[in-house]
Specification:
Layout: E1 2-3, E2 12-16, H1 22-33, E3 49-50, H2 56-63, E4 68-75, E5 78-88, E6 91-99, H3 108-124, E7 128-134, H4 138-146, E8 150-157, E9 167-168, E10 174-181
Parallel strand pairs: 6-7
Antiparallel strand pairs: 1-2, 2-4, 3-9, 4-5, 5-6, 7-10, 8-10
Helix pairs in contact: 1-2
Length: 192
């Protein structure tokens, strides 16, 4: 499926990822969040976490989840972003969101999250989108708030000791639940 794109950008293609995409998706996700390459973009977690963000097994589990899908986003045939959608009762969960660091900051994230919300609403008839964000990521939380997400004050602990999720560089990490009403309403959109 195609969708509108930021001014000056080539058209984006959204498709369900396949097992064959797993290595490229892992590389994309790692580049957006970990190591020196992630510092090119603004979504880096390199100062909070070292080690891996995900692995092929984790990505394949999302791709093959019966209640979800992993959207691969391509521009001119090149993988530039991805996001997870999972049907959870009356809501959808949004996760594993990554945009190639060099493509960040130009409005691409807004387009992708809007398409993810539309897809979840149309696929499952859900009225809310949920996500969890590391609470120390104030800049990222503020970006989601400008898109209509609200902080709930509901926290879950970071899985310290499980290196599949990274090696924490601080002892105060937790995830906060963010929620947005995504019911189809005319004239409602997030800010920039």
């Amino acid at each position: 499926m195609d969708t509108a794109t930021p001014p000056g950008s080539a058209r984006l293609t959204f498709r369900d990822a396949t097992d064959a995409d797993a290595p490229a998706l892992v590389a994309l996700i790692e580049s957006a969040y970990r190591g020196d390459s992630s510092r090119t973009g603004w979504t880096t977690e390199a100062d909070l976490l070292e080690g891996q963000r995900t692995d092929e097994e984790g990505v394949r589990a999302v791709i093959n989840a019966p209640a979800g899908r992993l959207l691969a986003v391509e521009r001119e045939g090149e993988l530039i972003a991805c996001c997870q959608l999972e049907h959870r009762g009356d809501a959808a969960y949004f996760g594993m969101f990554a945009v190639r660091p060099g493509a960040q900051g130009g409005g691409l994230g807004k387009v992708i999250i809007a398409e993810a919300e539309r897809t979840a609403r149309e696929s499952w008839g859900v009225a809310e989108m949920h996500m969890t964000v590391i609470s120390a990521r104030e800049d990222l939380i503020a970006w989601y708030e400008r898109r209509g997400y609200r902080r709930t004050g509901q926290f879950t602990p970071f899985p310290y000791g499980d290196e599949r999720f990274g090696i924490p560089q601080r002892d105060d990490l937790a995830f906060e639940l963010l929620v947005k009403n995504i019911e189809d309403r005319q004239g409602v959109s997030g800010g920039s």
